Amino acid sequence: MKLITRSTDYALRALCFIAKYKGKIVSVSELALKLRVPQPFLRKILQALNGKGILTSLKGQGGGFTLAKEPAKIFITDIMRIFQGTLRLNECFLQKLACPHKKTCLLRKKITGIERYVLRELNSITLESLLE
Amino acid sequence: MKLITRSTDYALRALCFIAKYKGKIVSVSELALKLRVPQPFLRKILQALNGKGILTSLKGQGGGFTLAKEPAKIFITDIMRIFQGTLRLNECFLQKLACPHKKTCLLRKKITGIERYVLRELNSITLESLLE
DNA sequence: ATTAATGATACCATAATTGTATCATTTGTC
DNA sequence: GACAAATGATACAATTATGGTATCATTAAT
User: Fold this and answer.
1) Quick one: which H or E segment has residue A64?
2) Where on the phi/psi map is residue B67: left (φ > 0), alpha (ψ -120 to 50), or beta?
3) Measured in angstroms, what separates residue B41's CA from nucleotide D10's C1'?
4) Fewer CB atoms inside 10 A, N or C side of chain A?
5) Do B122 and A114 touch (CB under 8 A)?
6) What value does the mean pLDDT of chain A take?
7) Average pLDDT rounded to a whole number, residues B58-77
8) Please, what is the average pLDDT of chain B?
9) What's the CATH number for A6-87+127-131?
10) Cβ-Cβ contacts under 8 Å for B88 (sequence gap 6 or more)
């Protein structure tokens, strides 16, 4: 049970690194080296971030990636959603069987409450807040 | 990202059911029928609960399972731990690379905070509280 | 023209979770 | 005592999610 998967993790580290470069272009090979992360995998991740409008890419020699938005406008929930899908904690519990006694709904309520809290907390974290 | 896996889910439903029977013996086949859950899988789950002292089993014809403790003394975190292992939310983030800039530690702090909250909430739920 | 980069995409590997099968043992019932 | 109905133990299979690799096409600087 982890809140953040490896892909998200790598993505965040990469974004932090890129953010430090303030508009300069960073290539995958450089990043992979610095972060000590498998390059092809990182590449796939950056491509996804590009596709989702978090990064901007430049092709050709000397190309690479830069941030597409200010760090203050990149929320870690955005990143999580890209790599982990919708953020829900109560995926499976009692969904088909429509809660035969509705007692167990107390559990669902609790979990929904937890979910709300978790999302609120996570939504308070931007890339900027991770930078220093 | 789910807080509760299917095994835990099944286990909780089964425990609720068994708890209602107040000391009577419930067999896997009966339970599987009532809960509409694959029987061999449910069986494995109940065996685990027995092994962990949550249920007591009786072999032989007319055998089955009963609760080994009062519902008030069975915490859903106990059950989660049995099927999902240690309850941690910040498994993978920045553990090997020992936080090169310690900036990202803010994330870790946040997640640790979330984890504490989640555990506190979950620890307030017993089987009894799920019963009505 | 060459080289160093990304785009797109298909494929593979690993691990966790979910689920099945089987043989041995126990116990109630006839 | 034989039989049937239950669990104990355990190995195996299937499915899914995640992590990771490979490759060919395209772009752009030198």
Assistant:
1) strand A64-67
2) beta
3) 14
4) C
5) yes
6) 87
7) 96
8) 88
9) 1.10.10.10
10) A1, A2, B115
Identity at A79, one-letter amino acid code: I
Q: Which nucleotides of D are covered by protein (CB under 7 A)?
A: 4-11, 18-23, 26-30
Instruction: Provide mean pLDDT across the span A103-132.
Output: 84
Q: Supply the Cα-derived Rg of chain A in whole angstroms.
A: 18
Residues A89 and A112: their CA atoms lie apart, in Å, by 8
Per-residue pLDDT, averaged over B54-77, amounts to 96
Residue A112: predicted pLDDT: 84
A43 touches strand D (CB under 7 A): yes
Q: What is the dihedral of CA A37, A80, B123, B113, to 10 degrees?
A: 70
Domain boundaries, chain A: 6-87+127-131
pLDDT tier at A99, thresholds 50, 70, 90: very low
Name the DSSP letter for residue B73: G
Please say whether the beta carbons of A93 and B80 come within 8 A: no
- Global pTM reads 0.89
Q: B80: Cβ–Cβ under 8 A, 6 or more apart, which residues?
A: B4, B8, B87, B122
* CATH architecture entry for B6-131: Orthogonal Bundle (1.10)
End-to-end Cα, chain B, rounded Å: 28
